[in-house]
Amino acid sequence: MSSSNSTLNRRDFVRGAATTGGALLAGAALASCDTQGSHANGHPFPVEPDLATGGNIPRVPLRIPAVVSPVGLALTAAPGVASVLPGKATPALLYNGAFPGPTLSARKGDRVTVNYTNGLSEPSITHWHGMLVDHANDGHPRQVVGTGGTHAYDFTINQRAALNWYHPHPHMLTGGQVYRGLAGGFIVRDEIDTGLVGNALGLPTGTHEVPLIIRDASFDSSGGFQFSNKSSGFFGNTPLVNGTVNAYLPVNKAIYRFRILNGCNARIWRLALNTGAPLYLIGSDGGLLDRSVALTEIGIGPGERLDVLVDFRTLGTNATAMLRCLDAGWDLLQFVGTGISVLGADIPTSLTTIAPLGAPKRTRRFTFDGMTRLNGKVYDINAVEFTVPLGDVERWVFVTNGNGPHPVHVHGASFQVQTRTGGPGRVFDWERGWKDTVVVNDRETVEVLIQFVAHRGLYVLHCHQLGHEDGGMMANFEVV
Ligand code: C2O
Ligand code: CU
Whose CA is nearest to atom 1 of ligand 1? Predict the structure, then answer.
Protein backbone atom coordinates (compact mmCIF):
# COMPACT_ATOMS: atom_id res chain seq x y z
CA MET A 1 0.00 0.00 0.00
CA SER A 2 1.48 3.36 -0.95
CA SER A 3 1.45 6.28 1.41
CA SER A 4 -0.74 8.33 -0.92
CA ASN A 5 -3.32 5.58 -0.68
CA SER A 6 -3.17 5.68 3.05
CA THR A 7 -3.67 9.45 3.11
CA LEU A 8 -6.72 9.01 0.95
CA ASN A 9 -7.94 6.21 3.14
CA ARG A 10 -7.65 8.26 6.28
CA ARG A 11 -9.50 11.15 4.71
CA ASP A 12 -12.22 8.80 3.58
CA PHE A 13 -12.40 7.37 7.03
CA VAL A 14 -12.84 10.77 8.60
CA ARG A 15 -15.60 11.55 6.13
CA GLY A 16 -17.14 8.18 6.97
CA ALA A 17 -17.01 8.91 10.65
CA ALA A 18 -18.56 12.34 10.15
CA THR A 19 -21.49 10.96 8.20
CA THR A 20 -22.06 8.29 10.79
CA GLY A 21 -23.90 10.73 13.02
CA GLY A 22 -27.03 9.85 11.07
CA ALA A 23 -25.85 6.32 10.48
CA LEU A 24 -25.47 5.99 14.18
CA LEU A 25 -29.14 6.27 14.92
CA ALA A 26 -29.84 3.75 12.22
CA GLY A 27 -27.17 1.53 13.72
CA ALA A 28 -28.68 1.78 17.15
CA ALA A 29 -32.09 0.91 15.74
CA LEU A 30 -30.62 -2.10 14.00
CA ALA A 31 -28.98 -3.18 17.19
CA SER A 32 -32.20 -3.13 19.12
CA CYS A 33 -33.76 -5.26 16.39
CA ASP A 34 -30.88 -7.67 16.85
CA THR A 35 -31.67 -8.04 20.50
CA GLN A 36 -35.03 -9.57 19.61
CA GLY A 37 -33.35 -12.19 17.49
CA SER A 38 -31.41 -15.27 18.39
CA HIS A 39 -27.71 -15.37 18.78
CA ALA A 40 -25.48 -17.12 16.31
CA ASN A 41 -23.90 -19.35 18.92
CA GLY A 42 -27.15 -20.33 20.50
CA HIS A 43 -26.70 -18.10 23.53
CA PRO A 44 -29.73 -16.08 24.49
CA PHE A 45 -29.32 -12.53 23.37
CA PRO A 46 -30.35 -10.09 26.01
CA VAL A 47 -28.73 -7.80 27.21
CA GLU A 48 -28.22 -4.21 27.83
CA PRO A 49 -25.77 -3.88 30.70
CA ASP A 50 -27.38 -4.12 34.09
CA LEU A 51 -26.75 -0.55 35.06
CA ALA A 52 -27.31 0.28 38.67
CA THR A 53 -28.14 3.73 37.41
CA GLY A 54 -31.08 2.35 35.47
CA GLY A 55 -32.26 3.73 32.19
CA ASN A 56 -31.36 2.98 28.64
CA ILE A 57 -28.03 4.48 27.77
CA PRO A 58 -27.68 5.31 24.09
CA ARG A 59 -24.64 4.05 22.22
CA VAL A 60 -21.80 6.52 22.15
CA PRO A 61 -18.58 6.59 20.12
CA LEU A 62 -15.80 4.39 21.44
CA ARG A 63 -13.23 6.47 23.26
CA ILE A 64 -9.73 6.06 21.80
CA PRO A 65 -7.02 7.01 24.30
CA ALA A 66 -4.47 9.56 23.10
CA VAL A 67 -1.21 8.00 21.92
CA VAL A 68 1.89 9.46 23.55
CA SER A 69 5.58 8.68 23.55
CA PRO A 70 7.13 7.42 26.78
CA VAL A 71 10.38 9.11 25.85
CA GLY A 72 10.55 12.15 28.13
CA LEU A 73 7.06 11.67 29.55
CA ALA A 74 5.74 13.18 32.77
CA LEU A 75 3.21 10.70 34.12
CA THR A 76 1.07 11.65 37.10
CA ALA A 77 -1.40 9.44 38.92
CA ALA A 78 -3.94 11.65 40.64
CA PRO A 79 -7.61 11.96 41.56
CA GLY A 80 -9.77 13.41 38.84
CA VAL A 81 -13.16 13.12 37.26
CA ALA A 82 -14.03 10.71 34.47
CA SER A 83 -16.99 11.09 32.20
CA VAL A 84 -18.45 7.60 31.92
CA LEU A 85 -22.22 7.81 32.29
CA PRO A 86 -24.29 10.45 30.51
CA GLY A 87 -24.74 13.57 32.58
CA LYS A 88 -22.79 12.19 35.51
CA ALA A 89 -19.30 12.78 36.80
CA THR A 90 -17.38 9.79 38.10
CA PRO A 91 -14.69 10.58 40.69
CA ALA A 92 -11.73 8.49 39.58
CA LEU A 93 -7.98 8.00 39.83
CA LEU A 94 -6.34 8.89 36.55
CA TYR A 95 -3.02 8.87 34.73
CA ASN A 96 -2.53 12.36 33.31
CA GLY A 97 -6.23 13.05 33.75
CA ALA A 98 -7.36 10.41 31.26
CA PHE A 99 -9.64 7.37 31.62
CA PRO A 100 -8.12 5.04 30.66
CA GLY A 101 -4.58 6.42 30.66
CA PRO A 102 -2.91 7.48 27.42
CA THR A 103 -1.62 4.71 25.17
CA LEU A 104 2.15 4.76 25.34
CA SER A 105 3.77 3.79 22.06
CA ALA A 106 7.45 3.20 21.44
CA ARG A 107 9.82 1.15 19.33
CA LYS A 108 12.24 -1.55 20.29
CA GLY A 109 15.53 0.24 20.98
CA ASP A 110 13.88 3.39 22.29
CA ARG A 111 15.11 4.71 25.63
CA VAL A 112 12.05 5.23 27.79
CA THR A 113 12.29 8.05 30.31
CA VAL A 114 9.20 8.58 32.44
CA ASN A 115 9.01 10.89 35.41
CA TYR A 116 6.26 9.47 37.54
CA THR A 117 4.56 11.49 40.25
CA ASN A 118 2.22 10.00 42.81
CA GLY A 119 -0.58 12.52 43.26
CA LEU A 120 -2.75 10.02 45.16
CA SER A 121 -3.52 10.16 48.86
CA GLU A 122 -1.95 6.72 49.35
CA PRO A 123 1.29 4.97 48.33
CA SER A 124 1.68 3.82 44.76
CA ILE A 125 4.16 2.94 42.04
CA THR A 126 3.67 2.09 38.38
CA HIS A 127 4.49 -1.31 36.90
CA TRP A 128 4.93 -1.91 33.16
CA HIS A 129 3.14 -5.24 32.77
CA GLY A 130 4.86 -7.29 30.06
CA MET A 131 7.88 -5.03 29.73
CA LEU A 132 11.21 -6.76 30.27
CA VAL A 133 12.89 -4.20 32.47
CA ASP A 134 15.37 -4.31 35.35
CA HIS A 135 14.26 -4.21 38.98
CA ALA A 136 14.80 -0.45 39.33
CA ASN A 137 12.29 0.13 36.53
CA ASP A 138 9.80 -2.64 37.28
CA GLY A 139 7.55 -0.87 39.75
CA HIS A 140 8.03 -3.63 42.33
CA PRO A 141 5.89 -3.12 45.47
CA ARG A 142 9.05 -2.23 47.44
CA GLN A 143 9.42 0.83 45.24
CA VAL A 144 6.21 2.56 46.28
CA VAL A 145 6.39 6.28 46.85
CA GLY A 146 4.07 8.25 49.11
CA THR A 147 1.85 11.19 48.26
CA GLY A 148 3.82 13.69 46.20
CA GLY A 149 6.65 11.19 45.74
CA THR A 150 8.30 10.61 42.38
CA HIS A 151 10.10 7.81 40.57
CA ALA A 152 12.32 8.34 37.52
CA TYR A 153 12.08 5.42 35.08
CA ASP A 154 14.85 5.04 32.53
CA PHE A 155 15.16 1.89 30.44
CA THR A 156 15.83 0.83 26.88
CA ILE A 157 13.20 -1.36 25.22
CA ASN A 158 14.66 -4.70 24.18
CA GLN A 159 11.84 -7.12 23.46
CA ARG A 160 9.38 -8.20 20.81
CA ALA A 161 6.59 -5.96 19.59
CA ALA A 162 3.53 -6.44 21.77
CA LEU A 163 0.70 -4.75 23.60
CA ASN A 164 1.78 -4.35 27.21
CA TRP A 165 0.18 -2.16 29.82
CA TYR A 166 0.86 -0.06 32.86
CA HIS A 167 -0.90 0.08 36.20
CA PRO A 168 -0.18 0.64 39.92
CA HIS A 169 1.51 -2.10 41.96
CA PRO A 170 1.50 -1.05 45.66
CA HIS A 171 1.05 -3.97 48.01
CA MET A 172 -2.58 -4.34 49.18
CA LEU A 173 -3.75 -1.28 47.23
CA THR A 174 -3.46 -2.36 43.59
CA GLY A 175 -7.07 -3.52 43.18
CA GLY A 176 -8.68 -0.26 44.23
CA GLN A 177 -6.28 1.93 42.26
CA VAL A 178 -6.64 -0.05 39.05
CA TYR A 179 -10.41 -0.28 39.48
CA ARG A 180 -10.76 3.49 39.93
CA GLY A 181 -9.07 4.09 36.61
CA LEU A 182 -5.30 3.73 36.75
CA ALA A 183 -4.43 1.64 33.70
CA GLY A 184 -3.24 2.26 30.17
CA GLY A 185 -1.83 0.44 27.16
CA PHE A 186 1.85 0.36 26.20
CA ILE A 187 2.44 -0.68 22.61
CA VAL A 188 5.92 -1.79 21.61
CA ARG A 189 6.69 -1.96 17.89
CA ASP A 190 9.60 -3.55 16.10
CA GLU A 191 10.95 -4.22 12.63
CA ILE A 192 8.36 -6.95 11.94
CA ASP A 193 5.41 -5.09 13.38
CA THR A 194 6.15 -1.43 12.79
CA GLY A 195 2.61 -0.21 12.88
CA LEU A 196 3.43 1.84 9.78
CA VAL A 197 1.92 1.48 6.37
CA GLY A 198 4.06 -1.00 4.54
CA ASN A 199 4.87 -3.10 7.57
CA ALA A 200 6.09 -6.51 6.56
CA LEU A 201 2.82 -8.30 7.26
CA GLY A 202 0.50 -5.61 5.95
CA LEU A 203 -1.29 -5.45 9.29
CA PRO A 204 -3.95 -2.76 9.60
CA THR A 205 -2.68 0.56 10.92
CA GLY A 206 -3.84 4.06 11.75
CA THR A 207 -7.55 4.23 12.49
CA HIS A 208 -7.80 0.55 11.53
CA GLU A 209 -5.66 -0.49 14.50
CA VAL A 210 -7.70 -0.01 17.66
CA PRO A 211 -6.75 -0.69 21.28
CA LEU A 212 -9.57 -2.14 23.39
CA ILE A 213 -9.20 -2.12 27.15
CA ILE A 214 -12.17 -4.17 28.29
CA ARG A 215 -13.14 -4.15 31.95
CA ASP A 216 -16.17 -4.10 34.23
CA ALA A 217 -17.35 -1.68 36.89
CA SER A 218 -20.37 -0.83 39.01
CA PHE A 219 -21.74 2.62 39.68
CA ASP A 220 -23.89 4.22 42.34
CA SER A 221 -26.82 6.43 41.43
CA SER A 222 -24.69 9.57 41.32
CA GLY A 223 -22.19 7.97 38.91
CA GLY A 224 -19.51 7.10 41.46
CA PHE A 225 -17.61 3.83 41.27
CA GLN A 226 -18.82 1.15 43.65
CA PHE A 227 -16.05 -1.08 44.92
CA SER A 228 -15.12 -3.41 47.71
CA ASN A 229 -11.68 -4.95 47.82
CA LYS A 230 -12.76 -8.43 48.78
CA SER A 231 -10.35 -11.31 48.26
CA SER A 232 -12.98 -13.24 46.36
CA GLY A 233 -12.60 -10.61 43.66
CA PHE A 234 -14.68 -7.69 42.56
CA PHE A 235 -17.11 -8.19 39.69
CA GLY A 236 -18.77 -5.10 38.25
CA ASN A 237 -22.18 -5.17 36.58
CA THR A 238 -21.34 -2.97 33.60
CA PRO A 239 -18.79 -3.50 30.81
CA LEU A 240 -16.56 -0.59 29.77
CA VAL A 241 -14.45 -0.54 26.62
CA ASN A 242 -11.76 2.14 26.78
CA GLY A 243 -13.79 3.69 29.58
CA THR A 244 -16.90 3.86 27.38
CA VAL A 245 -20.25 2.37 28.36
CA ASN A 246 -22.34 1.15 25.39
CA ALA A 247 -19.72 2.03 22.80
CA TYR A 248 -19.94 1.82 19.03
CA LEU A 249 -17.16 2.09 16.49
CA PRO A 250 -17.75 3.05 12.85
CA VAL A 251 -15.84 0.59 10.66
CA ASN A 252 -14.95 0.75 7.00
CA LYS A 253 -15.16 -2.23 4.66
CA ALA A 254 -11.69 -3.34 5.69
CA ILE A 255 -9.78 -5.61 8.02
CA TYR A 256 -9.29 -4.16 11.49
CA ARG A 257 -6.67 -4.96 14.09
CA PHE A 258 -7.81 -4.93 17.72
CA ARG A 259 -5.23 -4.82 20.51
CA ILE A 260 -7.22 -6.22 23.41
CA LEU A 261 -6.43 -6.04 27.13
CA ASN A 262 -8.55 -7.52 29.88
CA GLY A 263 -8.37 -4.73 32.46
CA CYS A 264 -10.78 -6.33 34.94
CA ASN A 265 -9.98 -6.94 38.57
CA ALA A 266 -11.38 -10.47 38.40
CA ARG A 267 -13.59 -11.21 35.41
CA ILE A 268 -12.60 -13.48 32.53
CA TRP A 269 -14.06 -12.57 29.13
CA ARG A 270 -15.09 -15.07 26.48
CA LEU A 271 -15.13 -12.93 23.37
CA ALA A 272 -17.11 -13.63 20.21
CA LEU A 273 -18.90 -11.80 17.43
CA ASN A 274 -22.70 -12.02 17.41
CA THR A 275 -22.58 -12.78 13.69
CA GLY A 276 -20.64 -15.97 14.33
CA ALA A 277 -17.85 -14.60 12.12
CA PRO A 278 -14.35 -15.55 13.21
CA LEU A 279 -11.88 -13.55 15.21
CA TYR A 280 -8.46 -14.05 13.59
CA LEU A 281 -6.02 -14.38 16.44
CA ILE A 282 -2.53 -13.17 15.51
CA GLY A 283 -0.91 -12.48 18.88
CA SER A 284 -1.02 -12.96 22.63
CA ASP A 285 0.72 -11.31 25.62
CA GLY A 286 4.26 -11.31 24.23
CA GLY A 287 3.51 -10.42 20.62
CA LEU A 288 2.74 -12.17 17.36
CA LEU A 289 2.05 -15.90 17.18
CA ASP A 290 3.79 -18.06 14.59
CA ARG A 291 0.61 -18.17 12.50
CA SER A 292 -2.87 -16.73 12.57
CA VAL A 293 -5.82 -18.86 13.60
CA ALA A 294 -9.54 -18.27 13.02
CA LEU A 295 -11.57 -18.73 16.19
CA THR A 296 -15.25 -18.23 16.95
CA GLU A 297 -14.51 -17.49 20.61
CA ILE A 298 -11.46 -16.48 22.63
CA GLY A 299 -10.93 -16.42 26.39
CA ILE A 300 -8.97 -13.67 28.11
CA GLY A 301 -8.28 -13.37 31.84
CA PRO A 302 -7.27 -10.30 33.85
CA GLY A 303 -3.92 -8.94 32.64
CA GLU A 304 -3.85 -11.02 29.44
CA ARG A 305 -3.69 -9.49 25.97
CA LEU A 306 -4.90 -10.51 22.52
CA ASP A 307 -4.05 -9.30 19.04
CA VAL A 308 -7.03 -9.98 16.80
CA LEU A 309 -8.00 -9.19 13.20
CA VAL A 310 -11.66 -8.84 12.20
CA ASP A 311 -12.77 -8.82 8.58
CA PHE A 312 -15.40 -6.15 7.97
CA ARG A 313 -14.93 -6.17 4.18
CA THR A 314 -18.49 -7.31 3.60
CA LEU A 315 -20.18 -5.20 6.30
CA GLY A 316 -22.68 -2.98 4.51
CA THR A 317 -23.54 0.63 5.22
CA ASN A 318 -25.15 0.93 8.67
CA ALA A 319 -25.03 -2.83 9.12
CA THR A 320 -23.85 -3.81 12.57
CA ALA A 321 -21.90 -6.49 14.32
CA MET A 322 -21.38 -6.86 18.05
CA LEU A 323 -18.40 -7.95 20.10
CA ARG A 324 -19.86 -9.90 22.98
CA CYS A 325 -18.83 -11.81 26.07
CA LEU A 326 -20.49 -15.21 25.94
CA ASP A 327 -19.98 -15.88 29.65
CA ALA A 328 -21.44 -12.61 30.95
CA GLY A 329 -23.97 -12.47 28.11
CA TRP A 330 -23.01 -8.83 27.57
CA ASP A 331 -22.69 -6.73 24.48
CA LEU A 332 -19.30 -5.03 24.66
CA LEU A 333 -18.76 -3.04 21.49
CA GLN A 334 -20.95 -2.44 18.47
CA PHE A 335 -19.43 -2.07 15.01
CA VAL A 336 -21.37 0.05 12.52
CA GLY A 337 -20.49 -0.18 8.83
CA THR A 338 -19.62 3.04 6.99
CA GLY A 339 -19.83 1.29 3.64
CA ILE A 340 -16.49 2.77 2.61
CA SER A 341 -14.13 0.24 1.02
CA VAL A 342 -10.51 0.54 2.02
CA LEU A 343 -8.09 -1.77 0.29
CA GLY A 344 -5.47 -3.52 2.35
CA ALA A 345 -3.55 -6.74 2.62
CA ASP A 346 -5.36 -9.99 3.29
CA ILE A 347 -5.25 -11.76 6.66
CA PRO A 348 -1.70 -13.07 6.89
CA THR A 349 -1.23 -16.75 7.64
CA SER A 350 2.39 -17.07 8.63
CA LEU A 351 3.45 -14.36 11.07
CA THR A 352 6.75 -14.88 12.82
CA THR A 353 9.08 -17.51 14.22
CA ILE A 354 8.83 -18.59 17.84
CA ALA A 355 11.68 -20.78 19.00
CA PRO A 356 10.44 -23.29 21.58
CA LEU A 357 12.36 -23.14 24.84
CA GLY A 358 14.61 -26.20 25.32
CA ALA A 359 14.78 -28.83 28.04
CA PRO A 360 14.35 -27.36 31.52
CA LYS A 361 17.22 -27.55 34.02
CA ARG A 362 14.88 -27.79 36.98
CA THR A 363 11.23 -27.78 38.00
CA ARG A 364 9.55 -25.52 40.53
CA ARG A 365 6.07 -26.02 41.84
CA PHE A 366 3.82 -23.16 42.93
CA THR A 367 0.52 -23.68 44.70
CA PHE A 368 -2.07 -20.93 44.68
CA ASP A 369 -3.88 -21.56 47.95
CA GLY A 370 -7.11 -20.14 49.24
CA MET A 371 -7.48 -16.50 48.33
CA THR A 372 -4.33 -15.05 49.89
CA ARG A 373 -1.44 -17.50 49.76
CA LEU A 374 1.19 -18.70 47.32
CA ASN A 375 3.06 -21.86 48.36
CA GLY A 376 1.25 -21.60 51.68
CA LYS A 377 2.45 -18.08 52.48
CA VAL A 378 0.93 -14.64 52.46
CA TYR A 379 3.17 -12.15 50.61
CA ASP A 380 6.17 -10.98 52.62
CA ILE A 381 7.50 -7.90 50.89
CA ASN A 382 10.89 -8.27 52.61
CA ALA A 383 11.48 -11.94 51.82
CA VAL A 384 13.17 -13.52 48.82
CA GLU A 385 11.40 -16.88 48.43
CA PHE A 386 13.69 -18.38 45.77
CA THR A 387 16.42 -17.52 43.32
CA VAL A 388 16.56 -18.28 39.58
CA PRO A 389 19.82 -18.42 37.62
CA LEU A 390 19.81 -16.00 34.67
CA GLY A 391 19.64 -17.90 31.39
CA ASP A 392 18.46 -21.27 32.72
CA VAL A 393 15.31 -22.73 31.21
CA GLU A 394 13.03 -23.87 34.04
CA ARG A 395 9.72 -25.68 34.24
CA TRP A 396 7.27 -23.85 36.48
CA VAL A 397 4.21 -25.80 37.56
CA PHE A 398 1.21 -23.80 38.75
CA VAL A 399 -1.24 -25.78 40.89
CA THR A 400 -4.50 -24.90 42.57
CA ASN A 401 -7.28 -26.70 44.38
CA GLY A 402 -9.89 -24.03 44.49
CA ASN A 403 -10.82 -20.36 44.65
CA GLY A 404 -9.83 -20.06 41.02
CA PRO A 405 -9.53 -18.99 38.38
CA HIS A 406 -6.12 -17.58 39.18
CA PRO A 407 -4.55 -15.57 36.37
CA VAL A 408 -0.89 -16.22 37.24
CA HIS A 409 1.53 -13.47 36.22
CA VAL A 410 5.33 -13.37 36.28
CA HIS A 411 7.46 -10.23 36.13
CA GLY A 412 10.81 -10.13 34.35
CA ALA A 413 10.34 -12.80 31.67
CA SER A 414 7.87 -14.34 29.24
CA PHE A 415 7.01 -18.03 29.29
CA GLN A 416 5.63 -20.71 26.99
CA VAL A 417 2.61 -22.70 28.19
CA GLN A 418 3.22 -26.45 27.85
CA THR A 419 0.34 -28.35 29.36
CA ARG A 420 -2.89 -27.86 31.22
CA THR A 421 -4.25 -30.83 33.16
CA GLY A 422 -7.22 -31.42 35.45
CA GLY A 423 -9.44 -28.83 33.75
CA PRO A 424 -10.14 -28.34 30.04
CA GLY A 425 -7.09 -30.54 29.48
CA ARG A 426 -5.60 -28.50 26.68
CA VAL A 427 -3.63 -25.39 25.96
CA PHE A 428 -5.85 -23.00 24.04
CA ASP A 429 -4.79 -21.26 20.84
CA TRP A 430 -4.68 -17.94 22.68
CA GLU A 431 -2.19 -19.41 25.14
CA ARG A 432 0.37 -20.16 22.45
CA GLY A 433 3.36 -17.93 21.81
CA TRP A 434 5.04 -15.84 24.50
CA LYS A 435 2.93 -15.29 27.60
CA ASP A 436 3.37 -13.48 30.91
CA THR A 437 -0.05 -14.29 32.39
CA VAL A 438 -1.93 -17.58 32.27
CA VAL A 439 -5.28 -18.58 33.78
CA VAL A 440 -5.21 -21.52 36.20
CA ASN A 441 -8.66 -22.90 36.95
CA ASP A 442 -9.82 -24.81 40.01
CA ARG A 443 -8.16 -28.22 40.45
CA GLU A 444 -5.97 -27.49 37.48
CA THR A 445 -2.24 -27.79 36.90
CA VAL A 446 -0.59 -25.60 34.27
CA GLU A 447 3.02 -26.15 33.24
CA VAL A 448 5.09 -23.48 31.57
CA LEU A 449 8.70 -23.18 30.46
CA ILE A 450 10.38 -19.95 31.44
CA GLN A 451 13.81 -18.44 30.91
CA PHE A 452 14.99 -15.16 32.40
CA VAL A 453 17.30 -13.63 29.85
CA ALA A 454 16.87 -9.90 30.28
CA HIS A 455 18.01 -8.84 33.77
CA ARG A 456 19.15 -10.07 37.16
CA GLY A 457 17.26 -8.70 40.14
CA LEU A 458 14.18 -8.89 42.34
CA TYR A 459 10.80 -9.61 40.76
CA VAL A 460 7.39 -10.93 41.75
CA LEU A 461 5.16 -13.81 40.78
CA HIS A 462 1.51 -13.33 41.67
CA CYS A 463 -2.14 -13.92 40.98
CA HIS A 464 -3.60 -11.12 38.83
CA GLN A 465 -7.07 -11.52 40.31
CA LEU A 466 -6.45 -8.27 42.13
CA GLY A 467 -8.37 -9.29 45.26
CA HIS A 468 -6.06 -12.30 45.58
CA GLU A 469 -2.98 -10.22 44.78
CA ASP A 470 -3.83 -7.59 47.38
CA GLY A 471 -4.67 -10.36 49.84
CA GLY A 472 -1.12 -11.64 49.54
CA MET A 473 -1.07 -14.25 46.73
CA MET A 474 2.33 -13.02 45.61
CA ALA A 475 5.99 -13.96 46.12
CA ASN A 476 9.33 -12.22 45.65
CA PHE A 477 12.11 -14.03 43.82
CA GLU A 478 15.50 -12.98 42.59
CA VAL A 479 17.14 -13.65 39.25
CA VAL A 480 20.84 -14.19 39.98
CU1 C2O B 1 -0.16 -6.50 35.82
CU2 C2O B 1 2.47 -7.67 38.76
O3 C2O B 1 1.11 -7.00 37.36
CU1 CU C 1 -5.87 -16.00 42.43
Answer: 129
